[in-house]
Write a structure and sequence with these properties.
Layout lengths: L2 H9 L18 H15 L6 E7 L5 E7 L2 E3 L2 E7 L3 H8 L2 E8 L4 E11 L2 H10 L2 H9 L9 H14 L11 E15 L7 E8 L2 E6 L3
Antiparallel strand pairs: 1-2, 1-5, 3-4, 4-7, 5-6, 6-7, 7-8, 8-9
Length: 217
């Protein structure tokens, strides 16, 4: 966040400020368009514009959604990090189809993304892991994410154990923790308009090429 973005975030209590409506060309690249919209969300002063819903579906067919933070994106896809033994990771292992949703209320915009996931390389996961603050690194070792917590003290005890174990040394990157990359095949940009006549600009991938079309609101 730049200094100006931090000021906007502070003055609006993280709710952001509205910006002019965007223009979208007929030959627009969807990843480049996402960058423009994501930059606008950052400039608006919204708190955590990188927050997104990740929806998965396990082998039993039950959908599940949760909020995570987007950490990287490029033409290859959208990356977030988590424990590979968590519920979301187990569902992604059983069923690699996934949906993402960004919602930026003050801008009256949302972006829906559908695709499949793959794990990022261990090297990429390790680089990001070591860029996190030390407390988060210890927390990754201490938390058996999504598993039942028998007692309140167990997590505190595990944190204390790993703080002592790695005292004075670098916290190693755990093999059970890393990134998922969502490779999109469908991206929809939703822009709110008057009288609920919203714009829905969609991109669908066919033979490695994006086809653009609109949907009724």
């Amino acid at each position: 966040m730049t200094f100006l973005e931090k000021i906007r975030c502070l003055l609006t209590f993280g709710q952001g400020v509205a910006l002019p409506l965007p223009e979208i060309s007929d030959n627009q690249d969807p990843i480049e368009l996402f960058k423009l919209w994501f930059d606008d969300a950052q400039k608006s002063g919204i708190l955590l514009p990188e927050a997104m819903s990740v929806s998965t579906c396990g082998a039993d067919g039950q959908p599940s959604s949760r909020m995570v933070l987007l950490k990287e994106y490029d033409q290859q896809g959208f990356v977030f990090y988590t424990n590979y033994e968590s519920r979301k990771s187990q569902q992604l292992t059983d069923n690699n189809k996934v949906a993402l949703l960004f919602h930026w209320n003050v801008l009256q915009r949302q972006v829906r993304i559908e695709g499949v996931v793959e794990k990022v390389s261990k090297e990429q996961s390790a680089r990001y892991f070591h860029s996190r603050d030390r407390g988060s690194q210890i927390g990754a070792w201490a938390s058996k994410q999504s598993h039942k917590l028998p007692t309140e003290n167990q997590l505190k005890e595990r944190v204390a154990y790993y703080e002592k174990k790695y005292a004075g040394k670098q916290v190693p990157h755990p093999d059970f923790w890393g990134g998922w990359r969502v490779r999109p095949h469908y991206i929809e940009f939703w822009q709110g308009r008057a009288s609920r006549l919203h714009d829905r600009i969609c991109f669908e991938q066919h033979n490695n090429h994006w086809q653009q079309f609109k949907l009724n609101p």
